[in-house]
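Need tokens for this chain, all 347 residues.
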Amino acid sequence: MSQIESEVYVLAGATLATSVALTLAMRKFALSRGLLDVPNERSSHKVPTPRGGGAAITLTAMTGFAVLAALHRLDFAVFAALAGGLAVAAVGFLDDRHALPAAVRLSAHAAAALWALAWLGGLPALRVGDHLISLGAVGTLIGVLGIVWVLNLFNFMDGIDGLAATEATFVAWSGALLAGAGSASGGVAAAALTFGASSLGFLRWNWPPARIFMGDVGSGYLGYVIAVLALVATRENPVVLWAWLILGGVFFVDATMTLLRRLLRGERAHEAHRSHAYQWLARRWGSHGKVTLAVMAVNLVWLLPCAVLAMRFPGYAAMFVIVALAPLAVLAIAIGSGRAETSVPGG
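Here are the structure tokens for all 347 residues:
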């Protein structure tokens, strides 16, 4: 291991420890100011719980990215693109306290996505079979929609203890593994390792039963960073985006299936609900921890091997996305993803 590689691992360790300490400090601050998430009929928790702990993830991750840039382990353009997450976190911070209109949130999210794409040179070419497809200006629109969707789906999926932080840690560290084994550019492996450490540190206090919640200040930031890192890695290796899509398969499938079924019933996308598959499962099992562990089992046993195969056989990467996600879609529907909440007694 070279000295510079040692520095990256030391930084990740320091980020982890700092995230643990800062999340605890955020918890004490929230308790002192009465910043509590009080349960209602749509909540998955039963006792008032401090919120806004995701700020610890944002602060520690951005500090880690800055250090990596100073060590020349992260391209400045990539650092600048990741810095757009501060705008996402700021809007989430305000929304946690004042319930901003959906149009305001989405406008800020789209602006942050445009910022990232401007620094990254647009949506990179994608490999489909043996062909490279570059979408030009249309790709920018697709890139904006993709980033906005990923950051919002993390918000949608942050509904039970430990789930979003666990997923972010898994995707980031698995992405770092794939980047380290491949040719990803811009410092993706180092940034993903650091980002995963910041998420894991928060998880120390968010694991069921959670002692602090992430809030929109953290959930949107998680999705934004993951989307940006995936695009950065894809610039060098056009097959990587498929692998990252597979890694986040549980979140992509549950959030997408739930949204589509709710829209088909004429429900508003931004209205609060408890109809995601993971929420149905948490109520049936009576445990947040069991659901989070089940998601991790699917990630490690099914999705990670599929992502590795997609990287190993790039000509079939798009096919591996279908192979990996189709069973999850069937399972999500069977569990209840997007089902009307009045359709099951006690649901």
